[in-house]
Amino acid sequence: MDNIFDLDDKNIDLAWCPGCGNFGINKVLKSVLKELKIKPENLVIISGIGQAAKMPQYLKTNMFNGLHGRALPVATAVKACNPGLTVIAEGGDGDMYGEGGNHFIHAIRRNPDLTNIVHNNMVYGLTKGQASPTSQPGFKTSVQVNGVFLEPFNPLAVAIALNASFVARAFIGDEKETAGLIKEAIMHKGFALLDIFQPCVTFNKQNTYTWFKENTFYLKNHDYKNRLTAFEMAVKTDKFPLGIFYKHPGKKTFEENLELYKTDKTPVIKRIFERNKMEKLIKIKR
Amino acid sequence: MNKSNNSKNDFDKEKRLISLVLCGEAGQGIQTIEGLLTRIFKLAGFNVFATKEYMSRVRGGSNSTQIIISNRRVSAPLNRIDILIPLDKSALPHLRNRIGKDTIILGEKEKVLPEREIIDIPFTRIAKEIGSPIFSNVVAVGLIASLFKVDQQIPLEYTKKRFFAKGEKIVQGNMTAIKRGYELASDLIKKESVARLSIPIPNPEQDIKEEIILNGAEAVSLGAISGGCNFISSYPMSPSTGVLTFLSQYANEFSIIAEQAEDEISAINMALGAWYTGARGMVTTSGGGLALMGEGVSLAGMMELPVVIHLAQRPGPATGLPTRTEQGDLELALYSGHGEFPRIIYAPGGIQDLFYLTQRAFNLADKYQIPVFILTDEYLMDTYYNTLEFDLGKTKIEVYINKTNKNYKRYQLTKNGISDRGIPGRGEGLVLVDSDEHDEFGRITENLDLRKNMVEKRLKKFKELEKDKISPELIGTREYEILIVGWGSTYHIIKEAVENLKKYKIAFLHFKQIYPLPSGIKEYFKKAKKTIVVENNATSQFGKLLELFTGIAVEHKILKFNGLPFFVDELTDKLEKIMRREEIPHG
Q: pTM to 2 decimals?
């Protein structure tokens, strides 16, 4: 079935490997966007660099395919300058948690109303198979020749520690549940982190579709309003929980906290410079 | 003994300048005295100039502020000190090299512990009599104002206004302090050394009251807002922070989003995101911050996104001297960001330039879809003087955003390299911007023919930029034989030094657009027999740039890189030395 987010050119040469989890995310994301009746011209997908960050190249919408690791500052500014746009910041684990780690922390603190989708395959794809911040201990690569021994970065635990307003994890092996979680994340007002397990079929022979299936489970009877139990779930690594870990509804967004939007919702880009005010200000300097 | 005290030149006869310096620890209230005196003198019709040099610390150390009071316009510092007010014991050693035999030193012997004769004024004792030692600085203000025969009502009224918010007790105390200062001066003026200064300066210009007085950071900020800036994201870094502070303070009044970013990388990426949506973003930073922004500058080049970068230079490398000045980052601004793409670099010469060029930067960034740099430095940021009120009638906010249609191509190949700039949500089209090499729609490509076209498209703008070039300003006689070359913040300093050397056939060529260098520069050098470049750095970065792009090699270099700006008298001497050594005749 046709989707308005499909590219016009159906024969485009996609840069992803056959069987890559990114295809599933692309498909699910487009269907959710359509279902939510978002217009392509009112959506901006901001991404960094990496295989996952190519996502907006393969969707028909506004795109800011920027620098490695820097999607979140751009996305924060886009939403603040024009709050009427739907904003998604998307990329991989190296992009968002490695190169962009500092922005990840501070974007959560700002709480802009945007969706942060992170394709987490626990490996670097585009640079050909080095360890990522989420690589599991013992994972051997051409650089980590004796196996990874660094503590894996735990994005969900970090986000919950920072009192993020929405924290969830999906596994693209299950498209139906992933669609539901993407939908929840986009609909959520505030910063929504959705970490998606997405197997890399070329460079990660350890964390395969089967491995993810066997090592994940869906949260049941979990109270996502309880930050402490959410954190407890987030630090579980024997098997990784999936679903919504934590939600902080009603938390004020970055845009809502900006003084200039408190009484007037007009986007900053539509406001006009008030010359008479400036004339007065210059005279104060007499 | 200070040599320049003796060099009585023609210039000094017509223009009377008194150099007053206050020196003490951080936290002793030098800034309060500076704020009061500059406004009081201006209200009284004098031209005033103030600049400071300070240490990178919150308390203690030795900081000094120079205030120059004149009957004529004054916009540059002097090495010479006529009146010195030391506030602690390290003040005199700190200024040792600048104190001449004619310098009048007014201070508290007990506090200053001078090794030479000073005029003892018990500021603290008087302040205590008034009620608190905090009034001692205002006693000094009264004393100084009185030496210049300023009508006592002016400081009284100004002080009242200034301290109004602090309550009746403080206002009364300060007003008494002013009066006591005036009483002290009536005795002091009889002293021969003070009388020799022949204060007051005759015939102050009366219309100065209508002028504005502000520092460089304020001028950049006012220019930015007047240029339509409605977004600033920056990480605090001396000496660039004043702009972030100013825009934050006026954010609500002028609908500006002002965000302190987690680092400079975030700051420039935010600013680019802002421009992408149609806002007008800027960043303010110093050398270390720009180094971190490098990749973002390159992104602006590739995405053809406008951005305005205020770079307030300080001495490097690395942390260098955080609160001092240098023109050391011209090359950093010139080469910041990998790859080849156009940019503009402005180097404002003074308060007027800071306002108008910053205002203009936003229009040109938008028009050409490129990064525009405003290159300033600590000296400019921290310098105040009275100047003509900015005329908004001379400025206009020019917006270059087009509504998109269904087949909108963000990077449509055009004759002059400039494509229509659309923004998301305005029109039926989609706006795709990409840090990868891209096709006309903005999608990633490895089509190498297209790559070549896109490189040429971006570089075509260089030619187009020539239409909006700002030619250098030539000051002095048209019949010059000696040509002094300068750029940016040294403008007024070189200008005043050249005025001191009118007996020579001398002119000064000042560049405020330093990149791309405007065409036609070679003409200025044709009739110059001697050329001298003056720069506040160690390697003559502008001299190198000039040679690289025009083939002109400037003969002599006067370079200063100890963290301080040039002083007019110091530069006059240095220039004259070259004239004498080269046996250049005058008259």
A: 0.96
